[in-house]
Amino acid sequence: MNTPTLPPTAAALSGRHVLVGITGGIAAYKSADLVRRLREAGAQVRVAMTEAAIAFVSPLTFQALSGAPVRHTLIDADAEAGMGHIELARWADAILVAPASADFMARLAGGLADDLLSTLCLASEAPLCLAPAMNRVMWKHPATQDNAQRLAARGVHLFGPASGAQACGETGAGRMLEPMQLVDALGQVFASERLAGRQVLITAGPTREALDPVRYISNRSSGRMGYAVAEAARAAGARVVLVSGPTALPAPAGVERIRVESAQQMHRAVFDRVASCEIFIATAAVADYRPAHPAEQKIKKHADRLSIELIRNPDILAEVAALPKGPFTVGFAAETEELERHAREKRKRKGVDLIAANQVGNGLGFDREDNALVVYGEHDVWDLGTADKRELARRLIERIADALEKRGTAP
Ligand code: PMT
Fold first, then answer.
1. Domain-located, residue 290
2. 206 lines ligand 1 (CB under 6 A)
3. Annotated catalytic residue 168
4. Which domain holds residue 216?
5. What is the DSSP string of 116-127?
6. Which of 126, 160, 190 is the last residue of a domain?
């Protein structure tokens, strides 16, 4: 018998930690071959099974193939003393549940964590991939379709199902993909994660500079651009810390957010974290000046005129860019005129690797869903076009990954 060769995408699995989840279904017998192929591709594999899966295949089979003990109970004193379930969730670079039964998909869609595997899926920030396998009528059922859509909308990768003859004797959609197809699909997930394993620090939103206990100077930044960049970096596999000025936006999933108010607080939060980051993206609209002497009590309106003395805030981006052995730096330039000239000049003056220029004012840039960006490097220019901020953020992250690869610092 010929041994099938691994697909080219399998190369992206080398050294990765893959947690294979197995739920109850006859396709579970194919998961043994899947574990074998993943190991051939150079992945480290751990297996977690549901109780229903154990009725179909023995954990011992998977222990032998993965080379590690198989977990199936949530409360397991021996296992918790070694690699506990939260550590196992953290250990995984990806979770691949194959086969994923209709019941398991429904529990995931509902956010349940009532057994080990569903808990691991909920407790992990790694990409979650499901290989559905079930009778064709169950797959077609509106409840299962609805669950599949809800999961996909949350970023869960669905591999298959395929169509064909089923173990139940029927023919239709619901077959689990073949192990090699699953290896290929998982390889593609890793290959698309261009910032996998990178630490990215991002600033977003406005800052508020206190005049007195109830008033401040600020700007029109909503935080949307910076939050979109954080989301895109996370989707590209990075570990993301977002230092955010005051906004009404929820933190993107899987992103650690540190809330600050003033430029000085943002400066402190950035310098607390900058040593461990490899990429710094300054999207925040940081106030360049702050009141020199904020009043301790509310300022009373006695005089016809009031002057406020302002002093310079620290330039966070320029200071990060000047660090010896500092991170790759990406700034934003918000300009109301002569966009290219000011952006290029700002990039040079602040000493940053790339600067993303956007026209602002007259309803552009700030506090809206879309934007237009042109990115300037020392030698390169990329026009990212006009688009929704999330799409622009995705394009920006691609350019950053290109620039890092070009410079030869790929992970
Ligand atoms: O938040 P939104 O409503 O989505 O709007 C998005 C945006 C227009 C705010 C965003 O796209 C943007 O342009 N952000 C940068 C705004 C800005 O302050 O630009 P600047 O040209 O003044 O500053 C240049 C760069 O230096 C920026 O990366 C800024 O974060 C950084 N900077 C500026 C001053 C300072 N004291 N510290 C800094 O780090």
1. yes
2. no
3. yes
4. 199-407
5. HHHHHHHH--S-
6. 190
Let me know if residue 2 belongs to a domain: no
Within this chain, do residues 179 and 123 fall inside the same structural domain, yes or no? Answer: yes
Does 178 share its domain with 261?
no
The Å distance, Cα 411 to ligand 1 centre, comes to: 28
CA distance 233 to 209: 29
Pocket test for ligand 1, best of 242, 332, 366 (most atoms within 8 A of CB): 332
| 62 and 88, same domain (yes or no) | yes
User: Taking 90 as the threshold, does the pLDDT of residue 4 lie above it?
Assistant: no
Instruction: Identify whether residues 265 and 388 lie together within a single domain.
Output: yes
Mutate to test the pocket of ligand 1, among 202, 208, 221 (most ligand atoms within 8 A of CB): 221
Q: Does 209 lie in the same domain as 156?
A: no
Closest protein CA for atom 16 of ligand 1: 285
CA of 346 to the centre of ligand 1 (A): 11
Q: Where are the alpha helices (DSSP H) in 281-351?
A: 316-321, 339-350
What confidence category does residue 2 fall into, taking pLDDT thresholds of 50, 70 and 90?
A: low
How far apart are the C-alpha atoms of 289 and 216, rounded to whole Å?
A: 12
199 vs 76, residue with greater confidence: 199
Q: Is the pLDDT of residue 406 over 50?
A: yes
CATH number of residue 348's parent domain: 3.40.50.10300
CATH assignment at residue 150: 3.40.50.1950
Q: Write the pLDDT tens digit of every residue in 170-184.
A: 888 999 999 999 999
Q: What is the DSSP letter of 299?
A: P
Q: What is the pLDDT of residue 410?
A: 47
Q: Give 250-293 pLDDT, tens digit per residue.
A: 998 788 999 999 999 999 999 999 999 999 999 999 999 999 99
Please list, residue by residue across 105-141, b when 16 or more beta carbons sit within 10 angstroms of its beta carbon and e when fewer do: bbbbbeeebebbbbbbbeebebbbbbbbbbbbebbee
Type of residue numbered 122: L
Tell me: do 264 and 388 sit in the same domain: yes
In a domain, 392, yes or no: yes
Instruction: For residue range 11-43, list pLDDT tens digits in order.
Output: 889 888 999 999 999 999 999 999 999 999 999
Q: Ligand 1 within 6 A of 382 CB? A: no
- Whether 243 and 333 share a structural domain: yes
